[in-house]
Design goal:
The complex is a heterodimer of chains A (302) and B (147).
Chain A: E1 2-9, E2 12-19, H1 30-41, H2 49-54, E3 60-62, H3 65-80, H4 90-95, E4 124-126, E5 131-133, H5 146-158, E6 164-168, E7 171-174, E8 184-190, E9 193-203, E10 206-212, E11 217-220, E12 223-226, E13 229-230, E14 235-236, E15 241-248, H6 251-264, H7 266-274, E16 280-285, E17 289-292
Antiparallel strand pairs in A: 1-2, 2-6, 3-5, 4-5, 6-7, 7-10, 8-9, 10-15, 11-12, 13-14, 15-16, 16-17
Helix pairs in contact in A: 1-5, 5-6, 6-7
Chain B: H1 15-39, E1 43-46, H2 56-61, E2 63-66, H3 91-95, H4 102-107, E3 117-121, E4 141-143
Antiparallel strand pairs in B: 1-2
The chains are: A alpha+beta (302), B alpha+beta (147).
């Protein structure tokens, strides 16, 4: 029996599926998990742990295990991608107009000022004290990885009670095959027609995530802006990729890899992805064409 | 009178010559260091690491000047800049870290990417069934950009 739970968290629509005949008690507590994580990781809550950390730059601050883990993974991802993924693009994100929740953003005629990044390299950590010290001119934004991390975490916790799927606003984590042994069918939304999907994947375990500039965009300075910041320029990325979907061992990795593809462009992004073992991708270009990695055929539902 | 045994060490001139040799050696060493230091260039490093993309106005506003001197002979290894060190020392977090670390990425041999397969024109009107490939079951959920 497939149990289903829909709820909102982290500014997105969430879905939890549990393939089990028994009504597991933790199933109803999944929204509570996300609420706890959001309170630690959200930049939109003034009283969140992340907001308090960002107000104390230049000082050592002891943090929770959640904020420590996500920050650690974000820094690992930054090193893995040589800074193309960065957890310190908040100044640039706000300068581009994303200085409030997406629903609250309006039209702004002021020009966008570039805010180049790279300050993540100067973040200091003391693991024994679980403490962080941000450089004075840098603030953390974990929005690029928090949902993927939360999906992985929730799928792992829920997976103890049966095959589980967590969809955190499009970032999907799967604990294992369905109860009958079959993989989960996952659609890839068409960025040109969001209510349609143009491909169906079969995913037995791991993560799937999509990064795109088809939805979270707004007008500022007389031009369309979006939320995928290129740390090299400090501006919303100029790219021929409209959306990139990545299949990876975890939703966190998929989310990071999808951003790298979008920032790199379809040609360089696909080359980079082909060098990563156990990754596959579908890239939808701005011209409406979809290109795929060599490994994708292993995940297509034919 | 017994014959005088010849001294093993010939007299080379006494303490004055030794002092001269010592002073000359010291002068050569100090002079060498000074020569190396003089040849070392003075570097200018902006605060931001991505200086290439930084506006000129910001580079001028906050430059940091660091003068690199020649390393003195020592057995103590140089201390790396703290800003460049990110210690992975949380076992639990490290265990769940993304698999391909930086070292792995560097070590990976350059492989020629497979030719990309052009799937379809996804901007074309969708199929009545929902736009998916034929034979595929209805998806449990869909992946999309954050919303």
């Amino acid at each position: 029996m497939m149990q289903r739970l829909d709820f909102r968290a982290m500014g997105c629509q969430m879905l939890a599926l549990l393939d089990s005949d028994r009504r597991a008690a933790p199933f109803d507590t999944v929204p509570g998990w996300f609420e706890t994580w959001e309170q630690a990781l959200s930049r939109f809550r003034a009283d969140s742990e992340l907001s308090r950390l960002n107000q104390r730059t230049g000082q050592w601050v002891r943090v929770s295990a959640t904020l420590w883990d996500v920050t650690h993974l974000a820094l690992v991802a930054a090193r893995w991608t040589d800074g193309l993924f960065s957890p310190t693009i908040l100044n640039a994100l706000e300068a581009a107009g994303y200085d409030r929740t997406f629903a609250e953003i309006g039209v702004d005629e002021r020009p966008v000022m570039p805010q180049p990044d790279g300050q993540w390299r100067a973040i200091q950590r003391q693991s024994l004290k679980r403490s962080l010290c941000l450089p004075r001119n840098a603030r953390l934004d974990l929005g690029g990885v928090a949902k993927g991390w939360a999906a992985d975490r929730a799928a792992k916790k829920l997976g103890v009670h049966g095959p589980a799927l967590i969809d955190a606003g499009g970032d999907i984590a799967i604990s294992g095959p369905q109860a009958d042994g079959s993989p989960w069918p996952i659609g890839i939304s068409n960025p040109f027609q969001p209510d349609q999907h143009f491909e169906t994947l079969k995913i037995a375990a791991g993560g799937v995530a999509t990064s795109g500039r088809d939805y979270r965009r707004w007008q500022k300075g007389g031009a369309w802006q979006h939320h995928i910041i290129d740390p090299r320029t400090g501006l919303p990325a100029q790219t021929d990729v409209l959306s990139a979907t990545v299949i990876a061992p975890s939703a966190f990795e998929a989310e990071v890899a999808a951003k790298v593809i979008l920032l790199s462009g379809s040609v360089a992004g696909l080359e980079w992805l082909e060098e990563q073992a156990n990754y596959a991708a579908v890239i939808v270009r701005e011209d409406g064409r979809a290109v795929t990695s060599a490994q994708l055929s292993n995940y297509l539902w034919n | 009178m017994p014959p005088v045994k010849p001294s093993k060490k010939p007299n080379t001139g006494g303490p004055g010559v030794k002092m001269l040799i010592t002073a000359a050696s010291l002068a050569a060493t100090v002079g060498g260091w000074a020569l190396i230091s003089a040849k070392e260039t003075t570097s200018v490093q902006p605060v931001q690491e991505s200086a290439a993309a930084q506006p000129v106005a910001q580079q001028v506003a906050a430059p940091v000047f660091s003068i690199k001197l020649a390393p003195l002979p020592t057995l103590v290894p140089a201390i790396a800049s703290q800003a460049q060190i990110i210690t992975v020392s949380n076992p639990r977090a490290a265990a769940s870290a993304p698999r391909p670390a930086v070292a792995v990425q560097v070590a990976a041999p350059p492989t020629a990417p497979q030719p990309a397969l052009v799937l379809r024109d996804v901007s074309a009107p969708a199929l009545a069934s929902g736009g998916s490939a034929s034979g595929a079951p209805a998806p449990a959920t869909k992946t999309h950009s954050s919303r």
